[in-house]
Amino acid sequence: MMKKALFCYLPILMLTCILTFSVTAQTITGAWKGKIGNTKVELKLVKSGDSLSGTSYYYISKTNYRRYSVKGYFDPETNAVIWWDDWMIEDHSSRAVMGTAAVDAQLSVADFNCPGETVMLLDGTSNKKESKDADKKNLHLEKITAPQFTDDWDWVIENYTVGANDPYIIDSINQLQGSTPYPEEKQIPIQTIPAPVLAEQPAPAPAPEPKISTTTKPSSPEEKFASRKKVLQTVIPVTAETIELRFYDNAQVDGDSIALFLNGRLIFEHIRLTEQAYTIKIKASDLGADNELVMVAENLGSIPPNTSFMVAIVGDKRYEARLFANENSSAMVRIVKQ
Asked: Once rounded to an integer, what is the mean pLDDT over residues 219-244?
């Protein structure tokens, strides 16, 4: 009789163990609260594969805050976490919260650790996402069960903990809260030049004095790099010895040409983007802890702006991003060693 009862309860016990393992294995998902420097922060993260989605609040009070959509990555093997403010959703703040919104979106790197059964922490550093050289501030966040700010992510987190991890729901909320706008290429209209009207030719005029050419010399890639704003478009965490980068034309092949700078130094130029990958490899030993790869548009092709589809292969991980650049801005990728 006892064996029969045990047999009946065995599936329930197994299911409980599976659910418990699933929940504990995904504990990066949830709400977090603490500080970056002296700024109060509430962060909500949801894990899908190795990727993170969510939202961040920088606040003084519940009515004085700034909110961003968040993207990031989590490495379960090292418990390394990296996330960044992708797009500002709401601004109900005074300048005292963090300063200027466009300048103060953050990129954060932290370790996920559990010093106790019920205590989960994120400890690391954070700085302005548009510059690796900006001052880094200490980051300390603790996982909480009752967030101060309510939004759609609360429902996702609640369902996630009981195993209802639906990627469609996560993608839907990401679309609702928006992301960094990506400009579409627009075909430049062809100008029709009317045929010249034939008329009686006048007597030839005396030859004019030769003029000195005043044609402006095209700017070099270095000059374009220095004069254009760098806009962060994605972040790549590096845990392998080599990073392989593949660049394609993102849309119709239209003659786009780019130059690449690593930490301010020109490493490749005159890269013509096509449907075939232009591949470069970078050794991790040649990188610092935090690095900036900048894609500069050498031209805009026949369909502006200059757009690229980039694939990064780091060990057994693959990252993808659409990059865009024009005459005013260049695409920046932060490459962070973990």
From this structure: 96
Q: What is the average per-residue pLDDT within 159-175?
A: 67
Q: How far apart are CA 81 and CA 72, in angstroms?
A: 8
Q: Are 320 and 309 in contact (CB under 8 A)?
A: yes
| pLDDT one-digit tens code per residue, 91-120 | 998 765 655 554 489 999 999 999 988 899
**Amino acid of residue 168:** Y
Contact 64, 93 (CB under 8 A): yes
Assign 152 to helix, strand or coil. Answer: helix
Report the distance separating Cα 155 and Cα 149, nearest Å: 13
The answer to whether 297 touches 327, Cβ cutoff 8 Å, is yes
Name the token pair of 330: 């260049």
Query: Does 192 score more than 70 pLDDT?
Result: no
Encoded tokens for 242: 């080599």
Structure-token pair, residue 239: 């845990």
Are the CB atoms for 40 and 127 separated by under 8 Å? no
Contacts of 78 (CB under 8 A, 6+ apart): 239, 338
Q: Which long-range contacts (CB under 8 A, 24 or more apart) does 186-192 make?
A: 186/303, 186/304, 187/302, 187/303, 188/302, 188/303, 188/304
Adjacent-strand bridge partners of 245: 280, 312
Paired sense of beta strands 80-92 and 137-144, if any: unpaired
Q: By C-alpha distance, which of 69, 86, 70 is closest to 177?
A: 69
* 331 CB-near residues (< 8 Å, 6+ apart): 231, 233, 294, 295, 308, 323, 324, 325
Helices and strands (DSSP H and E) totals, the chain: 5, 17
- Supply the pTM of this predicted model: 0.79
Alpha-helix runs per DSSP H in 139-203: 152-160, 167-177
Determine if residue 185 is left, alpha or beta; phi over 0 gives left, psi from -120 to 50 gives alpha, anything else beta.
Answer: beta
What domains sit in the chain, N to C, each tagged with a CATH number? 21-177 (2.40.128.120), 221-337 (2.60.40)
Q: Where are the alpha helices (DSSP H) in 60-209?
A: 101-104, 152-160, 167-177
